[in-house]
Amino acid sequence: MSQEERIDLVLRETKPLRFPRGKRLPLYCWHAMDIPGDDAAIERTLKALDARGIGACATWRPGKAQDKALERALRIGAAQKRLGLRVNVNANACTYTVCNGAPETAHVDADGKPFFDTSSSPRRKLGCPFKLASRYPAMREQVDFFARAYKAKGIDIDFVFADWEIDGPIEWQGGWDAAKRCATCRKRIPRLDDFAAFQKAYRKVRSEVTRECYSGVVLKHFPKALVGNYAVYPHNGWRYWYDYFEKPPAEGLPVRMDQRSPVRPWADEFEDSGYTFAMPTVYTWYRTWAWYDWDNGDYRWFYNLLLVASNAGEHTPAAVPIISFVHYTTTSPPRPPETADPGVKQFSTAAYKELLWHMLLRGHDTFFLWCPHTEIAQEIRPLHEVWAAALEFKQFLDKGEPVTFAVPKRPGPVLSGLRLGRRVLVRRTDFDATQGAVALKVGEKTLQVPRGEGKCQVLELPN
Protein backbone atom coordinates (compact mmCIF):
# COMPACT_ATOMS: atom_id res chain seq x y z
CA MET A 1 0.00 0.00 0.00
CA SER A 2 1.45 3.36 -1.02
CA GLN A 3 1.44 6.36 1.28
CA GLU A 4 -1.14 8.02 -0.94
CA GLU A 5 -3.38 4.95 -0.59
CA ARG A 6 -2.98 4.95 3.19
CA ILE A 7 -4.00 8.59 3.44
CA ASP A 8 -6.93 8.03 1.09
CA LEU A 9 -8.08 5.17 3.31
CA VAL A 10 -7.93 7.39 6.40
CA LEU A 11 -10.02 10.00 4.57
CA ARG A 12 -12.57 7.46 3.31
CA GLU A 13 -13.10 5.96 6.77
CA THR A 14 -13.66 9.31 8.51
CA LYS A 15 -16.11 12.18 8.08
CA PRO A 16 -15.83 15.96 8.33
CA LEU A 17 -16.42 17.24 11.85
CA ARG A 18 -19.94 18.14 12.98
CA PHE A 19 -18.62 20.22 15.88
CA PRO A 20 -15.72 22.71 15.61
CA ARG A 21 -12.37 21.67 17.06
CA GLY A 22 -11.40 25.23 17.97
CA LYS A 23 -7.92 25.25 19.47
CA ARG A 24 -8.01 21.67 20.72
CA LEU A 25 -5.18 19.45 19.58
CA PRO A 26 -5.90 17.44 16.44
CA LEU A 27 -6.21 13.68 16.23
CA TYR A 28 -3.00 12.03 15.03
CA CYS A 29 -2.64 8.90 12.92
CA TRP A 30 0.59 7.13 12.03
CA HIS A 31 -0.58 6.77 8.43
CA ALA A 32 -1.42 10.46 7.94
CA MET A 33 2.20 11.38 7.32
CA ASP A 34 4.47 12.55 4.52
CA ILE A 35 1.76 13.74 2.17
CA PRO A 36 2.78 13.06 -1.43
CA GLY A 37 2.27 15.23 -4.50
CA ASP A 38 3.01 18.80 -5.53
CA ASP A 39 2.24 21.84 -3.40
CA ALA A 40 -1.37 22.01 -4.59
CA ALA A 41 -1.95 18.32 -3.80
CA ILE A 42 -0.36 18.70 -0.37
CA GLU A 43 -2.67 21.61 0.45
CA ARG A 44 -5.76 19.72 -0.74
CA THR A 45 -4.89 16.76 1.44
CA LEU A 46 -4.08 18.92 4.46
CA LYS A 47 -7.44 20.65 4.11
CA ALA A 48 -9.29 17.35 3.81
CA LEU A 49 -7.55 15.97 6.91
CA ASP A 50 -8.13 19.18 8.85
CA ALA A 51 -11.83 19.08 8.01
CA ARG A 52 -11.83 15.79 9.93
CA GLY A 53 -9.67 17.20 12.74
CA ILE A 54 -6.65 15.10 11.79
CA GLY A 55 -3.16 16.56 11.94
CA ALA A 56 -0.54 15.41 9.43
CA CYS A 57 3.13 14.84 10.31
CA ALA A 58 6.27 15.14 8.20
CA THR A 59 9.12 12.70 8.81
CA TRP A 60 12.68 13.73 9.57
CA ARG A 61 14.96 11.02 8.26
CA PRO A 62 18.74 11.42 8.66
CA GLY A 63 21.37 9.64 6.64
CA LYS A 64 22.01 9.47 2.92
CA ALA A 65 18.49 10.62 2.02
CA GLN A 66 18.25 13.43 4.57
CA ASP A 67 18.31 16.23 1.97
CA LYS A 68 15.35 14.67 0.16
CA ALA A 69 13.54 14.09 3.46
CA LEU A 70 14.17 17.70 4.47
CA GLU A 71 12.84 19.04 1.19
CA ARG A 72 9.60 17.06 1.56
CA ALA A 73 9.22 17.99 5.24
CA LEU A 74 9.74 21.70 4.56
CA ARG A 75 7.12 21.66 1.80
CA ILE A 76 4.59 20.07 4.13
CA GLY A 77 5.53 22.46 6.94
CA ALA A 78 5.28 25.50 4.66
CA ALA A 79 1.84 24.37 3.49
CA GLN A 80 0.69 23.92 7.09
CA LYS A 81 1.94 27.41 7.90
CA ARG A 82 0.09 28.91 4.91
CA LEU A 83 -3.12 27.21 5.99
CA GLY A 84 -2.78 28.21 9.63
CA LEU A 85 -2.41 24.59 10.77
CA ARG A 86 -0.13 23.08 13.39
CA VAL A 87 3.27 22.02 12.06
CA ASN A 88 3.80 18.40 13.13
CA VAL A 89 6.95 16.30 12.93
CA ASN A 90 7.85 12.62 13.24
CA ALA A 91 11.44 12.74 14.52
CA ASN A 92 11.68 9.06 15.35
CA ALA A 93 14.40 8.21 12.84
CA CYS A 94 16.58 10.97 14.29
CA THR A 95 16.63 9.28 17.71
CA TYR A 96 18.37 6.14 16.43
CA THR A 97 20.88 4.76 17.02
CA VAL A 98 22.58 5.84 20.23
CA CYS A 99 23.85 2.34 21.05
CA ASN A 100 25.43 1.67 17.66
CA GLY A 101 27.86 -1.02 18.75
CA ALA A 102 30.89 1.27 18.76
CA PRO A 103 33.70 -0.40 20.76
CA GLU A 104 34.08 2.58 23.07
CA THR A 105 30.46 2.19 24.23
CA ALA A 106 30.75 -1.46 25.30
CA HIS A 107 30.33 -2.84 28.78
CA VAL A 108 33.64 -4.24 30.09
CA ASP A 109 33.71 -7.12 32.56
CA ALA A 110 36.11 -7.66 35.47
CA ASP A 111 38.62 -9.37 33.15
CA GLY A 112 38.66 -6.42 30.76
CA LYS A 113 36.56 -8.19 28.12
CA PRO A 114 34.09 -5.93 26.25
CA PHE A 115 30.51 -7.10 25.72
CA PHE A 116 27.06 -5.81 24.73
CA ASP A 117 23.55 -6.58 25.97
CA THR A 118 21.52 -7.98 23.06
CA SER A 119 18.71 -9.43 25.18
CA SER A 120 16.14 -6.84 24.05
CA SER A 121 16.87 -7.36 20.37
CA PRO A 122 19.63 -9.24 18.52
CA ARG A 123 19.92 -6.16 16.29
CA ARG A 124 20.59 -3.77 19.18
CA LYS A 125 23.97 -3.78 20.90
CA LEU A 126 23.19 -2.00 24.16
CA GLY A 127 26.38 -0.86 25.80
CA CYS A 128 27.32 0.81 29.06
CA PRO A 129 25.10 3.84 29.80
CA PHE A 130 28.05 5.67 31.29
CA LYS A 131 29.99 5.51 28.02
CA LEU A 132 27.33 6.95 25.71
CA ALA A 133 28.33 10.63 25.91
CA SER A 134 30.65 10.10 22.95
CA ARG A 135 27.54 9.47 20.84
CA TYR A 136 25.80 12.72 21.81
CA PRO A 137 27.30 15.08 19.19
CA ALA A 138 26.35 12.85 16.25
CA MET A 139 22.88 12.13 17.63
CA ARG A 140 22.30 15.80 18.45
CA GLU A 141 23.21 16.82 14.90
CA GLN A 142 20.64 14.43 13.41
CA VAL A 143 17.88 16.49 15.04
CA ASP A 144 19.56 19.87 14.79
CA PHE A 145 20.05 19.53 11.03
CA PHE A 146 16.29 19.55 10.47
CA ALA A 147 15.43 22.02 13.25
CA ARG A 148 17.89 24.60 11.88
CA ALA A 149 16.38 24.34 8.43
CA TYR A 150 12.84 24.92 9.73
CA LYS A 151 14.08 27.90 11.73
CA ALA A 152 15.84 29.34 8.69
CA LYS A 153 12.61 29.08 6.68
CA GLY A 154 10.57 30.73 9.42
CA ILE A 155 8.46 27.61 10.00
CA ASP A 156 7.73 27.22 13.69
CA ILE A 157 7.25 23.64 14.85
CA ASP A 158 4.28 22.90 17.10
CA PHE A 159 4.48 19.15 17.73
CA VAL A 160 7.32 16.61 17.58
CA PHE A 161 7.10 12.97 18.60
CA ALA A 162 9.39 9.95 18.60
CA ASP A 163 9.05 6.22 19.19
CA TRP A 164 12.45 5.65 20.83
CA GLU A 165 12.30 2.23 22.48
CA ILE A 166 14.99 -0.42 22.01
CA ASP A 167 18.04 1.79 22.36
CA GLY A 168 19.93 3.46 25.17
CA PRO A 169 19.87 2.13 28.75
CA ILE A 170 17.20 -0.57 29.28
CA GLU A 171 16.81 -2.24 32.65
CA TRP A 172 14.62 -5.16 31.52
CA GLN A 173 15.51 -8.50 29.94
CA GLY A 174 19.22 -8.99 30.57
CA GLY A 175 19.93 -5.35 31.38
CA TRP A 176 20.38 -5.83 35.11
CA ASP A 177 22.62 -8.87 34.64
CA ALA A 178 24.75 -6.96 32.13
CA ALA A 179 25.14 -4.06 34.56
CA LYS A 180 26.21 -6.44 37.33
CA ARG A 181 28.94 -7.85 35.05
CA CYS A 182 30.15 -4.40 33.97
CA ALA A 183 32.99 -2.88 35.99
CA THR A 184 31.90 0.67 35.13
CA CYS A 185 28.27 0.09 36.08
CA ARG A 186 29.34 -1.45 39.39
CA LYS A 187 31.47 1.59 40.11
CA ARG A 188 28.84 4.15 39.09
CA ILE A 189 25.87 2.45 40.80
CA PRO A 190 26.98 1.73 44.41
CA ARG A 191 23.78 -0.16 45.32
CA LEU A 192 23.60 -2.11 42.08
CA ASP A 193 22.10 -5.19 43.74
CA ASP A 194 19.06 -3.08 44.71
CA PHE A 195 16.79 -3.01 41.67
CA ALA A 196 15.29 0.38 42.59
CA ALA A 197 18.74 2.00 42.73
CA PHE A 198 19.76 0.31 39.48
CA GLN A 199 16.58 1.34 37.66
CA LYS A 200 16.82 4.93 38.86
CA ALA A 201 20.43 5.19 37.65
CA TYR A 202 19.66 3.70 34.24
CA ARG A 203 16.58 5.85 33.72
CA LYS A 204 18.52 8.96 34.75
CA VAL A 205 21.01 8.34 31.95
CA ARG A 206 18.18 7.50 29.54
CA SER A 207 16.58 10.85 30.35
CA GLU A 208 19.90 12.58 29.81
CA VAL A 209 20.27 10.99 26.38
CA THR A 210 16.83 12.18 25.25
CA ARG A 211 17.28 15.64 26.73
CA GLU A 212 20.73 16.15 25.21
CA CYS A 213 20.06 14.59 21.83
CA TYR A 214 16.36 15.18 21.14
CA SER A 215 14.02 17.26 23.31
CA GLY A 216 16.59 19.88 24.26
CA VAL A 217 17.65 20.34 20.65
CA VAL A 218 14.09 20.93 19.45
CA LEU A 219 13.22 23.26 22.33
CA LYS A 220 16.39 25.30 21.79
CA HIS A 221 14.96 26.37 18.44
CA PHE A 222 11.25 26.16 19.26
CA PRO A 223 10.67 26.75 23.00
CA LYS A 224 6.88 26.47 22.70
CA ALA A 225 6.88 23.14 20.85
CA LEU A 226 5.21 20.04 22.23
CA VAL A 227 7.94 17.38 22.36
CA GLY A 228 7.46 13.84 23.61
CA ASN A 229 8.21 10.17 23.20
CA TYR A 230 6.31 6.90 23.18
CA ALA A 231 5.56 5.55 26.67
CA VAL A 232 7.05 8.44 28.66
CA TYR A 233 4.53 10.12 30.97
CA PRO A 234 4.04 11.10 34.61
CA HIS A 235 2.79 8.20 36.75
CA ASN A 236 2.43 6.73 40.24
CA GLY A 237 5.67 4.73 40.19
CA TRP A 238 4.13 1.61 38.64
CA ARG A 239 3.63 0.40 35.08
CA TYR A 240 0.72 -1.89 34.24
CA TRP A 241 1.83 -3.09 30.81
CA TYR A 242 4.76 -4.73 28.99
CA ASP A 243 5.98 -3.80 25.54
CA TYR A 244 6.29 -6.43 22.83
CA PHE A 245 10.01 -6.92 23.46
CA GLU A 246 9.79 -6.88 27.25
CA LYS A 247 9.55 -9.99 29.36
CA PRO A 248 7.86 -10.22 32.78
CA PRO A 249 10.36 -9.83 35.62
CA ALA A 250 12.57 -12.76 36.47
CA GLU A 251 12.58 -14.14 40.00
CA GLY A 252 13.90 -11.61 42.47
CA LEU A 253 12.67 -8.48 40.73
CA PRO A 254 10.12 -6.49 42.76
CA VAL A 255 6.58 -6.70 41.42
CA ARG A 256 3.10 -6.15 42.79
CA MET A 257 0.70 -8.87 41.67
CA ASP A 258 -2.82 -8.01 40.55
CA GLN A 259 -4.36 -11.44 39.88
CA ARG A 260 -1.68 -12.72 37.46
CA SER A 261 -0.57 -9.27 36.31
CA PRO A 262 3.02 -8.55 37.42
CA VAL A 263 2.76 -4.80 37.95
CA ARG A 264 6.32 -3.50 37.94
CA PRO A 265 8.01 -0.48 39.49
CA TRP A 266 8.77 2.41 37.16
CA ALA A 267 11.23 5.24 37.68
CA ASP A 268 10.20 8.88 37.30
CA GLU A 269 11.77 10.06 34.04
CA PHE A 270 9.27 12.44 32.42
CA GLU A 271 10.41 15.80 33.75
CA ASP A 272 14.10 14.95 33.54
CA SER A 273 13.68 14.03 29.86
CA GLY A 274 12.62 17.58 29.05
CA TYR A 275 9.38 16.50 27.43
CA THR A 276 6.48 18.93 27.17
CA PHE A 277 3.66 16.46 26.55
CA ALA A 278 2.84 13.06 28.01
CA MET A 279 2.51 10.03 25.72
CA PRO A 280 0.97 6.98 27.44
CA THR A 281 0.72 3.72 25.52
CA VAL A 282 -2.78 2.25 25.73
CA TYR A 283 -2.56 -0.98 23.71
CA THR A 284 -4.28 -4.37 23.90
CA TRP A 285 -1.08 -6.36 24.42
CA TYR A 286 -1.84 -10.05 23.81
CA ARG A 287 -0.53 -11.25 27.18
CA THR A 288 -2.99 -8.96 29.04
CA TRP A 289 -5.89 -11.36 28.48
CA ALA A 290 -4.38 -14.18 30.54
CA TRP A 291 -3.66 -11.93 33.52
CA TYR A 292 -7.27 -11.78 34.69
CA ASP A 293 -9.99 -14.29 35.56
CA TRP A 294 -13.23 -12.52 34.66
CA ASP A 295 -15.68 -14.23 32.33
CA ASN A 296 -16.44 -10.82 30.86
CA GLY A 297 -13.66 -10.73 28.28
CA ASP A 298 -14.10 -7.07 27.45
CA TYR A 299 -13.42 -6.14 31.05
CA ARG A 300 -10.09 -7.99 30.96
CA TRP A 301 -8.94 -5.49 28.35
CA PHE A 302 -10.87 -2.48 29.65
CA TYR A 303 -9.59 -2.83 33.20
CA ASN A 304 -5.91 -2.89 32.27
CA LEU A 305 -6.20 -0.13 29.68
CA LEU A 306 -8.12 2.13 32.04
CA LEU A 307 -5.46 1.55 34.73
CA VAL A 308 -2.81 2.80 32.28
CA ALA A 309 -4.91 5.75 31.15
CA SER A 310 -5.92 6.73 34.69
CA ASN A 311 -2.33 6.53 35.92
CA ALA A 312 -1.30 9.13 33.35
CA GLY A 313 -4.44 11.24 33.76
CA GLU A 314 -4.16 11.48 37.51
CA HIS A 315 -0.45 12.32 37.70
CA THR A 316 0.06 14.58 34.68
CA PRO A 317 -0.24 18.31 35.51
CA ALA A 318 -3.24 19.97 33.86
CA ALA A 319 -0.96 22.28 31.86
CA VAL A 320 0.81 19.30 30.23
CA PRO A 321 -1.12 17.81 27.28
CA ILE A 322 -1.70 14.05 27.23
CA ILE A 323 -1.47 12.62 23.72
CA SER A 324 -2.04 8.89 24.02
CA PHE A 325 -0.93 6.17 21.66
CA VAL A 326 -3.91 3.86 21.12
CA HIS A 327 -4.52 0.54 19.34
CA TYR A 328 -7.35 -1.90 20.09
CA THR A 329 -6.86 -4.80 17.69
CA THR A 330 -5.03 -7.46 19.75
CA THR A 331 -1.48 -6.17 19.85
CA SER A 332 1.62 -8.28 19.18
CA PRO A 333 -0.05 -11.70 19.07
CA PRO A 334 2.10 -14.82 18.63
CA ARG A 335 3.46 -15.71 15.21
CA PRO A 336 2.47 -17.82 13.40
CA PRO A 337 -1.22 -17.15 14.24
CA GLU A 338 -2.03 -20.84 14.83
CA THR A 339 0.19 -20.76 17.92
CA ALA A 340 -2.06 -18.22 19.62
CA ASP A 341 -4.44 -19.25 22.40
CA PRO A 342 -7.90 -19.61 20.80
CA GLY A 343 -9.43 -18.52 24.11
CA VAL A 344 -8.10 -14.97 23.73
CA LYS A 345 -11.00 -12.83 22.51
CA GLN A 346 -10.67 -9.58 20.63
CA PHE A 347 -11.64 -6.43 22.57
CA SER A 348 -15.04 -5.40 21.20
CA THR A 349 -15.40 -2.17 19.25
CA ALA A 350 -18.23 -1.01 21.52
CA ALA A 351 -16.15 -1.46 24.69
CA TYR A 352 -13.14 0.20 23.07
CA LYS A 353 -15.22 3.26 22.21
CA GLU A 354 -16.34 3.42 25.83
CA LEU A 355 -12.71 3.30 26.93
CA LEU A 356 -11.89 6.28 24.68
CA TRP A 357 -14.71 8.29 26.27
CA HIS A 358 -13.42 7.50 29.74
CA MET A 359 -9.90 8.53 28.74
CA LEU A 360 -11.16 11.92 27.56
CA LEU A 361 -13.10 12.37 30.78
CA ARG A 362 -9.97 11.52 32.77
CA GLY A 363 -7.84 14.27 31.28
CA HIS A 364 -6.48 12.88 28.02
CA ASP A 365 -6.37 15.59 25.36
CA THR A 366 -6.19 13.63 22.13
CA PHE A 367 -5.07 10.33 20.64
CA PHE A 368 -2.35 9.06 18.33
CA LEU A 369 -3.29 5.96 16.38
CA TRP A 370 -0.61 3.41 15.65
CA CYS A 371 -1.52 0.26 13.72
CA PRO A 372 -0.27 -1.91 10.87
CA HIS A 373 -1.53 -0.67 7.51
CA THR A 374 -3.78 -3.74 7.22
CA GLU A 375 -5.78 -2.44 10.21
CA ILE A 376 -6.20 1.21 9.22
CA ALA A 377 -9.92 1.03 8.43
CA GLN A 378 -10.96 -0.95 11.51
CA GLU A 379 -8.83 1.22 13.79
CA ILE A 380 -9.45 4.75 12.53
CA ARG A 381 -13.24 4.45 12.23
CA PRO A 382 -14.24 3.95 15.90
CA LEU A 383 -11.44 6.20 17.15
CA HIS A 384 -12.48 9.10 14.95
CA GLU A 385 -16.17 8.59 15.74
CA VAL A 386 -15.56 9.03 19.48
CA TRP A 387 -13.03 11.82 19.15
CA ALA A 388 -15.26 13.80 16.78
CA ALA A 389 -18.43 13.22 18.84
CA ALA A 390 -16.66 14.38 22.00
CA LEU A 391 -16.22 17.84 20.49
CA GLU A 392 -19.91 18.44 21.27
CA PHE A 393 -18.68 18.78 24.86
CA LYS A 394 -15.69 20.93 23.98
CA GLN A 395 -16.30 23.35 26.85
CA PHE A 396 -15.98 20.51 29.36
CA LEU A 397 -12.96 19.07 27.59
CA ASP A 398 -11.23 22.45 27.52
CA LYS A 399 -12.00 23.65 31.04
CA GLY A 400 -13.37 20.73 33.02
CA GLU A 401 -11.56 18.98 35.86
CA PRO A 402 -11.59 15.15 36.14
CA VAL A 403 -13.56 13.99 39.17
CA THR A 404 -12.39 10.39 39.50
CA PHE A 405 -9.61 8.02 38.50
CA ALA A 406 -11.05 4.95 40.21
CA VAL A 407 -10.87 1.64 38.32
CA PRO A 408 -13.27 -1.02 39.71
CA LYS A 409 -11.56 -4.27 40.71
CA ARG A 410 -14.35 -6.35 39.15
CA PRO A 411 -16.79 -5.96 36.25
CA GLY A 412 -19.54 -3.49 37.07
CA PRO A 413 -20.42 0.17 36.49
CA VAL A 414 -17.47 2.39 35.55
CA LEU A 415 -17.83 6.14 36.00
CA SER A 416 -15.77 9.06 34.70
CA GLY A 417 -16.53 12.75 34.65
CA LEU A 418 -15.39 16.31 34.07
CA ARG A 419 -16.58 19.02 36.44
CA LEU A 420 -17.21 22.54 35.19
CA GLY A 421 -18.69 24.71 37.90
CA ARG A 422 -21.82 22.99 39.25
CA ARG A 423 -22.21 20.76 36.19
CA VAL A 424 -20.52 17.42 35.61
CA LEU A 425 -20.16 15.66 32.27
CA VAL A 426 -20.47 11.97 33.17
CA ARG A 427 -19.98 8.70 31.31
CA ARG A 428 -21.29 5.49 32.84
CA THR A 429 -20.35 2.15 31.27
CA ASP A 430 -21.80 -1.04 32.74
CA PHE A 431 -20.06 -4.41 32.67
CA ASP A 432 -22.81 -6.12 34.66
CA ALA A 433 -26.59 -5.94 35.02
CA THR A 434 -26.72 -3.10 37.54
CA GLN A 435 -29.83 -1.04 36.75
CA GLY A 436 -30.07 1.47 39.59
CA ALA A 437 -28.25 4.75 39.99
CA VAL A 438 -24.62 4.61 41.13
CA ALA A 439 -23.04 7.14 43.49
CA LEU A 440 -20.17 9.29 42.19
CA LYS A 441 -18.23 11.35 44.70
CA VAL A 442 -17.43 14.84 43.38
CA GLY A 443 -15.43 16.66 46.01
CA GLU A 444 -17.69 16.80 49.06
CA LYS A 445 -20.83 16.26 46.96
CA THR A 446 -22.33 13.01 45.71
CA LEU A 447 -24.01 12.57 42.34
CA GLN A 448 -26.43 9.76 41.63
CA VAL A 449 -25.62 8.62 38.10
CA PRO A 450 -28.37 6.67 36.32
CA ARG A 451 -27.60 4.02 33.75
CA GLY A 452 -27.07 5.63 30.35
CA GLU A 453 -26.22 3.20 27.58
CA GLY A 454 -23.73 4.63 25.12
CA LYS A 455 -24.17 8.28 25.98
CA CYS A 456 -22.79 11.07 28.13
CA GLN A 457 -24.92 12.81 30.73
CA VAL A 458 -24.61 16.36 32.04
CA LEU A 459 -25.69 16.35 35.69
CA GLU A 460 -26.09 19.17 38.20
CA LEU A 461 -24.36 18.91 41.56
CA PRO A 462 -26.77 19.01 44.52
CA ASN A 463 -26.89 22.05 46.78
Features:
463 residues, alpha/beta, TIM Barrel, eight-stranded parallel β-sheet, four-stranded antiparallel β-sheet, 12 helices, 33% helix
Name given to the CATH architecture: Alpha-Beta Barrel
> End-to-end span in angstroms?
58 Å
Task: Assign the structural class, choosing from mainly alpha, mainly beta, alpha/beta, alpha+beta, or little secondary structure.
Answer: alpha/beta
How many beta-strand elements?
A: 19
CATH class descriptor name: Alpha Beta
How would the blueprint of this fold be written?
Layout: H1 3-12, E1 27-33, H2 39-51, E2 54-59, H3 66-82, E3 88-90, E4 107-108, E5 114-115, H4 136-152, E6 159-162, H5 175-181, H6 183-188, H7 195-221, E7 226-229, E8 238-239, E9 256-258, E10 261-265, H8 270-273, E11 281-285, H9 297-315, E12 323-331, H10 349-360, E13 366-369, H11 376-390, H12 394-399, E14 401-402, E15 413-420, E16 423-430, E17 438-442, E18 445-449, E19 456-460
Parallel strand pairs: 1-2, 1-13, 2-3, 3-6, 6-7, 11-12, 12-13
Antiparallel strand pairs: 4-5, 8-10, 9-10, 14-15, 15-16, 16-19, 17-18
